[in-house]
Amino acid sequence: MYNEKMYGLGSKRSVIREIFEYAKVRGAQIGAENVFDFSIGNPSVPAPAIVNETIERLVKEIPAVELHGYTSAQGDKSVRDKIAANYTRRFGIKLSGDDLYMTVGAAASLTITMKAICNEGDEIIVFAPHFPEYSVFVANAGAKLVVLPSDDKMQPDFEALKKAINPRVRGLLINSPNNPSGVVYGEETIRKLTDILREKSKEFGEPIYLVSDEPYRELVYDADTVVPCVMAYYDNSIVCYSYSKSLSIPGERIGYIAVNPSATDAKAIYAAVCGAGRSLGFVCAPGLFQRVAAECDGMTADLSIYKRNRDIFYKGLTDCGFTCVYPDGAFYLFMKSPEEDVTAFCERAKKYELLLVNGESFGAKGWVRIAYCLKTETIERALPLFKKLAQEYGLCK
After folding, report:
1. Which residue in 385, 221, 216 sits closest to 316, CA to CA?
2. Cα(first)–Cα(last) distance of the chain, in Å?
3. Whole-structure pTM over 0.90, yes or no?
4. 288 secondary structure, DSSP code
5. Where is the domain boundary, 296, 331, 348?
6. Which of 82, 119, 165, 229 is 20 to 30 A from 288 in CA distance terms?
7. Domain that holds residue 354
8. The pLDDT value given to residue 18
9. pLDDT tens across 109-167, in order?
């Protein structure tokens, strides 16, 4: 016998992964250069040179047994202290290493956090569009994911949030810059959200946590775009971070959970995080890359390439007549399907070897996600094909 739920998850890939695998098969058939795979958020910009330099230095400086050995379950203390000190310097929040738990990337951060704050039957609220795997992480904690709408600019529906919060709601999970829309929640949005959470926490006599999923925190492209630090606006907040996108090291799986030291029962929450990590087997994140993360924290790959890709792609698609959400950050374009049947639209795009992700998996019917973390040349070669696709719908001449 086996677990039927786990069989269901393992026997069918996510929509994104299905397209990613299809692209590899199709590439073998007609040449990878002829397949335009916009499915997966795999950074195309190399890691900054300091990443490899730090690896080389650490390998030389630290004895192998120590470098490749176990760390504390929650992460090496010196690593956590260094990252916390840098967080304090950058955002003005007095974190200590004892507020941080090192993780195997953002997925582990979120899975652990959900397990730490939820009991069976609790609810976690998200706004559409949202990362599809949130439903898996929340269900793993025995909780229910409640999806609320956003407005036409992909900003939260505040009235819907007020109505949805009830005594079973344990937290609000946000992702800014957002995957899949690229939208950033600015200061006004964060203030409105946190005002509602405070009001409802007081009404029900229990803290409602704000969990901020921040793998794209550094990926913003316009001078006037600022990603607010949620800990500065709301005490009962938890940050889940990953270095996958900022440092272009997604395969190394390294990130952290930061518990706001001002949260109600902050030490107990942190202990629950440690307990959830133990329960799930997410202890002692990779030791070498804990140290690399600490040395490179706050640095980024060359984001100017993503900015150029965004500008070229957004202009190119809108010039073709497609409707797109303007992305302030991350590296995705959210484009409205020109026909109601989005599956049919994605299949038609395949005729031109354009592989797009149906937005329905993100909780947003009528939309597709397009990842632009590719080589600029690839995007430029794809635009004439998008134009041909647009012409089929009469969007342009």
Report:
1. 385
2. 59
3. yes
4. H
5. 296
6. 229
7. 4-48+301-392
8. 87
9. 999 999 999 999 999 999 999 999 999 999 999 999 999 999 989 999 999 999 999 99
